[in-house]
Amino acid sequence: MKKALVGLALALFALSVVLPLAWMVLTSLKSGPEIFSTPWGLPGTPHFENYAHAWQKAGIAHYFLNSLLITVATLVVLLPIGAMAAYIFARYPFPGSKLLFGTFLGGLMVPQFLAIVPLFFLMQRLNLLDTKIGLTAVYVAYSLPFTVFVMTAFFQTLPRELDEAAMMDGCGHSLAFWRVMLPLAKPGLIVVGIFNAIGLWNEYSLALVLISSDENRTLPLGIANLVMVEHYQSDWGALFAALVIVMVPVLIVYWIFREKIHETMLAGALKG
Amino acid sequence: MAQNRIRPQSSRNRGRALFIASFLAPAVALYGLFVVLPVIQAFQFSMYEWRGISDQKNFVGLQNFKDLFTDNVFWLSLEHNLLILVGAGALFLGVGMLVAHALQGEGRISKGMRSVYLFPQMISLVVVAVLWQFIYNPSFGLLTPVLKLVGLGKLASEGIAATASTALPAVAIAYVWYGVGFYIMVLSAGIRGIPSEVQEAATLDGAKGFQRFREITLPQLWAVMRVSVVYIVIHAVNIFALVFLMTQGGPDRKTEVMLTYLYERAFVDSKFGFATALAVANFIVVMALSGLVMRLYRKDPTGVAV
After folding, report:
1. I want to staple B148 with a disulfide (CB 3.0 to 4.6 A). Which of A52, A140, B153, B195 is the partner?
2. Which of B35, B41, B266 lies nearest to residue A107, judging by beta carbons?
3. CA angle (A115, A118, A122) in 5-degree steps
4. Which pTM value belongs to this model?
5. pLDDT tens for residues B202-233?
6. Among residues B161, B130, B178, B137, which one has the least CA distance to residue A226?
7. What is the domain partition of chain B in residue ranges?
8. Which of B124, B127, B279 lies nearest to residue A113, judging by beta carbons?
9. Domain B66-296 falls in which CATH fold?
10. Coil, strand or helix: which one is B143?
């Protein structure tokens, strides 16, 4: 009896999580009149053209490419420089290294909005406002604390004998890192990369402040603009389809790596 | 001889220093320029009156903070942050604890559920906000037929997120839907971490049901609860995207929170000095409240130092 009650409560909870998402996907396949007449009904025939409309007419394709470009570019810069710094913190203590490491970790605590106004004017002065490269640079900087934190912990778990052996074989400090340590750190890099990728793909606040032109809009900005500013409400089906388009890549990545993601979230939450 | 021995040593040291510097340089440069510098400047900016034109920057000392403390909207937005903190926080911990408790063990159901409840966390807040706006939509929202069924048709047709008295709870519910998975995850880990001997001993002593939960489980979760509450504080005080996208702080500022007000003063009104003072105040509120939580939770009833 008690077990059944607990099971029922859990099922209700799971339903409340899944139902809004399922509704979003189902609504994205309905025709305009259907959306209004049967909010709880299934689509009569699936209207896949909603996705074509979102992709082409509403400009989602363009925002999608921007997001992809900025996310990939950020990771390409972030992962090596984050791993390099982390390797130093893990293996090469020097006077002041603890303080510097602390400054990086402090970034996990500092709210983005504390820096937002000075950052806006800094970007203006550097002529980086409303540019993809500017947003990428800012994304790299704001992703560094988490990246350095996780990678430092990862390098600390690798046995010291490995880089010492590499150095014995005549590798310099630098070569030992690139040839031996970085390849060994691949599992850590993958987790950090995925984690950052999801966060960057979804990021809204920094992009809202730093990007203004339609040409440079990322996917979250583009969707928000369609709904809030342009009131793109003649085509509800396409709007729902656009939401699904933002969500699906993340959910696929999440599903593939869910165990790893879960582990990292937990470690980050309980240590940070 | 001695000289000879020192020289390679010092050149090796120099090589080491050079290596350290070159490996740190890119990260330090980007982090210093785009994070550390603006954070330091924030404290400086908050003491200027500035409308964004470079040669009209007047030092006004603490005037921005005085303006802030006499600004009704600031206090109203702080109140909304605190209401979200308490309301959503209670649900995070309550629902989190119930689900975590029900999911004890490493069974298949437990693992499967974990993937489900973390789903919303992975989705962009933009999608969450727009989706919930649609769920509350008076003409086709998912919730609207349900509300009509239970006799709240009038409310449903006005839109819960657009009605003054229900807008803040409406936003908070969307926020709980988005965030609760994180707390289930953390609390589940906490429960898994309780040594099984402790639970067994309690069972032998005849502790049952709620008593066992209160006297055994809860104290063992002290450290995990403390972490959870700190996260609740940080996130509730810094809530922005969800509110901004769902209600823009409206109707009639009924959902205005500190950061939506900051955004308005900075990027709509060009009151950059005032907005930065608000950012500093927001930071101080986060630090003060987290400090308070750490203090209140300092004494660990199990006597295990964490």
Report:
1. B153
2. B35
3. 120
4. 0.91
5. 666 766 667 777 777 778 888 889 889 999 99
6. B130
7. 2-45, 66-296
8. B279
9. MetI-like fold (1.10.3720)
10. coil
